[in-house]
Amino acid sequence: MDGIEVPKYFLCPISLQIMKDPVTATTGITYDRESIEQWLLTCKNTSCPVTQQPLPPESDLTPNHTLRRLIQSWCTENASLGVDRIPTPKPSLDKSHFFKLIKQLQQPGFNIKALQELDFLAAKNERNRKFMVETGVPKALLSFIVNCFEEISVQGLAEALRVLVFIRIPLAEAKIFLQEYNDQIIKSLIWVLGCEFKPQVMVKSHAVLALKTMIQAASSGLLERLEPPFFEMITGVLKQTTTVSQQGMNAALHALLIACPWGRNRLMMVESGAVSALIELELGSPEKRTTELILGILFHLCCCADGRAEFLSHKGGLAVVTKRIMKVSPTADDRAVFILSLISKFVAANSVLEEMVEVGTVTKLCMMLQVDSTAPYLKEKAMGILRSHTDEWRKFPCIDKTFHKVY
């Protein structure tokens, strides 16, 4: 199409491309349907891009058939010059179509076909995903997953989980589902993590993402009733990093972090081997957000004696936490210093204090005191750690010189 002059009124004001499905907004301006629908769905303060007049998200969009036929005729006339003909757009789907698919999802002979169509439509555009949420597709898919768990069938699970990730389960709907089904969906998703799939990474990543949303929506009562298999399976995900994507890994960590405030959960995490798995994961130098989540969980686990014991039994625990200070983010600094504070307060054995010298913990804490950007409360926390064991650490010549600079 190089060198061909396209009539300006054939171009969408948003995409600046030839319109395939021109529709006219209430402001009188014509846009390509996909572009204006995306605009209305994603912009918080919606207004007409051309006139700046208010344009509600539910605004009527009238098909401009005359303009579409003109565009198609022009494309046909210029076909010899490399212009592709614009096909006549199919009628837009309405909510009734998704209600129909939900009914089919509940029928054994039609559910797989319905899932495949939902998968296709969810990937197509934001408008379809919006209609799916409004018609209750997330709840229908969660029910389908629970049924798969109860019948021990994996058929259709990959499609169901992929659609859930596409449309993002609304927290309000997740809460309602949990009230109706109690913890069955959590047990179902944990079961999915133990199944074998092709492709493995994609399905398990989607399962963890859905699980994170359900844990976010769970009541405190439900979180207090989590069982060992939950923590064992999530810890297994942390240990086998090749089985999930980076997004899935962060979702698994987020789910653990949400469950951390309850002492019973922390003990089950420790028993499942979570401390070692977290340290090993951090030793791989993950991305910033992953490090923040890991250190957040480790802080909670170090609040109990068993967690501290597991942390210190790993040769890389103190070293990796020390290394992350002043290297990642203020959030990571906060969690790392508080972990060291717990260790310093409750496990001040000579061997531990010596290790803190060897891995550079004492030096790093002294450095924090000398950096202006360090938050005042963290400086105070670091100073508290240093003061609590000054006599022991002064026995090391290199540390004694460092103390002289600080005090």
UniProtKB/TrEMBL annotation:
<dbReference type="GO" id="GO:0016567">
    <property type="term" value="P:protein ubiquitination"/>
</dbReference>
<keyword id="KW-0833">Ubl conjugation pathway</keyword>
<dbReference type="InterPro" id="IPR011989">
    <property type="entry name" value="ARM-like"/>
</dbReference>
<protein>
    <recommendedName>
        <fullName>U-box domain-containing protein</fullName>
        <ecNumber>2.3.2.27</ecNumber>
    </recommendedName>
</protein>
<dbReference type="GO" id="GO:0006952">
    <property type="term" value="P:defense response"/>
</dbReference>
<dbReference type="GO" id="GO:0061630">
    <property type="term" value="F:ubiquitin protein ligase activity"/>
</dbReference>
<dbReference type="InterPro" id="IPR058678">
    <property type="entry name" value="ARM_PUB"/>
</dbReference>
<keyword id="KW-0808">Transferase</keyword>
<dbReference type="InterPro" id="IPR013083">
    <property type="entry name" value="Znf_RING/FYVE/PHD"/>
</dbReference>
<feature type="domain" description="U-box">
    <location>
        <begin position="5"/>
        <end position="81"/>
    </location>
</feature>
<comment type="pathway">
    <text>Protein modification; protein ubiquitination.</text>
</comment>
<dbReference type="InterPro" id="IPR016024">
    <property type="entry name" value="ARM-type_fold"/>
</dbReference>
<comment type="function">
    <text>Functions as an E3 ubiquitin ligase.</text>
</comment>
<dbReference type="Pfam" id="PF04564">
    <property type="entry name" value="U-box"/>
</dbReference>
<dbReference type="InterPro" id="IPR045185">
    <property type="entry name" value="PUB22/23/24-like"/>
</dbReference>
<dbReference type="InterPro" id="IPR045210">
    <property type="entry name" value="RING-Ubox_PUB"/>
</dbReference>
<dbReference type="Pfam" id="PF25598">
    <property type="entry name" value="ARM_PUB"/>
</dbReference>
<dbReference type="InterPro" id="IPR003613">
    <property type="entry name" value="Ubox_domain"/>
</dbReference>
